[in-house]
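Predict structure. Chain length: 175.
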Amino acid sequence: MCFCANTEAATDSKKENALSVSEILRNGRFVGTFPSERQLIAQCGNGVVRRPYADEILHIYFLAEKNLWLQCTIEGNSLIGPVTDILISSVPLHKNKVSPRCSINTASIYGIGVGDDARNVLRKLGEPIRTEQERIGSRTFTVYRYNTVPFELGTLITFYLARKRVVAFSIASPE
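Prediction complete.
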């Protein structure tokens, strides 16, 4: 299933501007226009919806076949706001496990997935632009942030590591 950039593409999944979570992860970037919240809901369902801030909406899904979590962040406060961040995580994101209606067949980015060793990240992508410690809830993670070639200008790729293993990663659009 895909999130489509326009209604014409919704009827013809072979159009160039059709987008999906799997395609964004496979390509390692957001291309052209971004899927909107309305398109996300049409394809995957609501999932668990959280509003941590007035202008940010999170749709959280559990990928049972992969035992991973998917979180899509929507910027703006309406159904036309674009998906601007996709997070894949082995760390539980919610107590309720709601599966998406669509299938997500890619759970890696640039050949790096949850469970991979930190050395694999460095070998494939080189030194990050920033390495830092980030506290999320009660846990502290080592965070590698990338925003370099071959990534689209402004696209930020983030890897969260615990015990030198990738436990989550995200791709954020320049929007």
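Summary: The chain is about 15% helix and 40% strand.
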